[in-house]
Amino acid sequence: MTTTSDPYAGSRETTEGRVYTVTGGDWDLTFGADPHGEERLVVNMGPQHPSTHGVLRLVLDLEGETVTKARVVIGYLHTGIEKNTEYRTWTQGTTFVTRMDYLSPLFNEAGYCLAVEKLLGVEAPPRAQTIRVLVMELNRIASHLVALATFGMEMGALTGMTNGFREREMILDLLEEITGLRMNHAYIRPGGLAQDLPEGAVEHVREFLKIMPGRVADFHKLLTGNPIWQARLKDAGYLDVTGCVALGVTGPILRAAGLPWDLRKVEPYLGYETYDFEVPTADTCDAWGRYLVRMAEVNESLKLIAQALDRLEPGPVMVEDKKIAWPAQLSLGADGMGNSLEHVRHIMGQSMEALIHHFKLVTEGFRVPAGQVYVPIESPRGELGYHVVSDGSTRPWRVHVREPSFVNLQATAAMSEGGMIADVIAAIASIDPVMGGVDR
């Protein structure tokens, strides 16, 4: 028989063959034993919805209700998306990366496509860049609304949850109208966009811009002045700017610690340097400040959307290079998304060259010059960076993502240890992790 200090399983021979005796293993060594022989309570919190934001497991050491040690266990949602992109064409990779952080899919698409375009040495047309900003800022608001809604649910403010998802539904309706899908759009493609804005989309977005500021004000009336909400959030999950920088934490957590670090300002892309917007910050370093920063960012995104609509100029939404641009001419009809009938008639019945080109480009894909790039963008959760390596073939050699939820989760122990077990929930909610991005 093995002892708790033995990392290997014991074994014995029987008439049925060798039988192994397995004990608690690393649990006994890491979690169960106290070096001073003192008894302590070890609690598994999660993986469960909603308290741990999905399939996240926290292992907490407790003295009474005080957390003395916190560990994060991840990997329950692993998809292997990064590896899967190596077995698909460059364009097909878009349909994989969009499923990582499923609350901000358009940011994954944009980061990936900007990296591919940098390797190709091309730039999306101006109209495509403006529409990218438009849909990404819509997506940012939708993501922050989910952060707010789940925060409310986990703190016991159920109306905050129902209202947050109600407003998000308006944005998902707009994204469905523009891209054809509510989530996982694969709308942003290498070289531009899958299709142009459909007729009426601009007017519908302008209607949303009239409604949303009032809804944001309603959130402030419901929660910001609420003494229970303030008591649950203030001084919970404390992490100052030194701790953020040491752990690589970015996004609203870093800005709530007072550092106005936003890649749209410090390393602009897609023409963000030409837009007028502010970077909201707070100096509280706690869950309360992160809530206020996200609420302020919703208002800034509304300003960016309005500016994007005003600067929309007629033009193509995909590069002219026929070796890169898919020869699809998509139209959104009653049956969903598909090629226009005129285009299908052309490639299927009128031009053998067009049919061959279409077949080769869709099945084999285009070649990307050998090299490697790193392209960071500002997602709702912080720095989302794509390190993409090409060996000159029609598929990525490597796609690795610097995912903000994954990096920010490192802060859990720093935020939780020494605090109450109830504040762990507030700390995790204020990080706003999405496990699809963590376990990619």
How is the topology of this model organized?
Layout: E1 10-14, E2 17-21, H1 26-32, E3 41-45, E4 57-63, E5 66-73, H2 81-84, H3 93-97, H4 105-120, H5 126-155, H6 158-179, E6 188-189, E7 192-193, H7 201-224, H8 227-233, H9 241-247, H10 252-255, H11 263-266, H12 287-310, E8 330-333, E9 336-339, H13 341-350, H14 352-363, E10 371-379, E11 382-390, E12 398-402, H15 404-408, H16 412-416, H17 421-431, H18 435-438
Antiparallel strand pairs: 1-2, 3-4, 4-5, 6-7, 8-9, 10-11, 11-12
Helix pairs in contact: 4-5, 5-6, 5-12, 5-17, 6-7, 7-12, 12-17, 13-14
Characterise this structure:
42% of the residues are buried. This protein is 46% helix and 15% strand. Helix 5 (126-155) runs antiparallel to helix 12 (287-310), helix 6 (158-179) packs antiparallel against helix 7 (201-224) and helix 7 (201-224) runs antiparallel to helix 12. It has 440 residues and is of the alpha+beta class. The protein is globular and about 80 Å long.
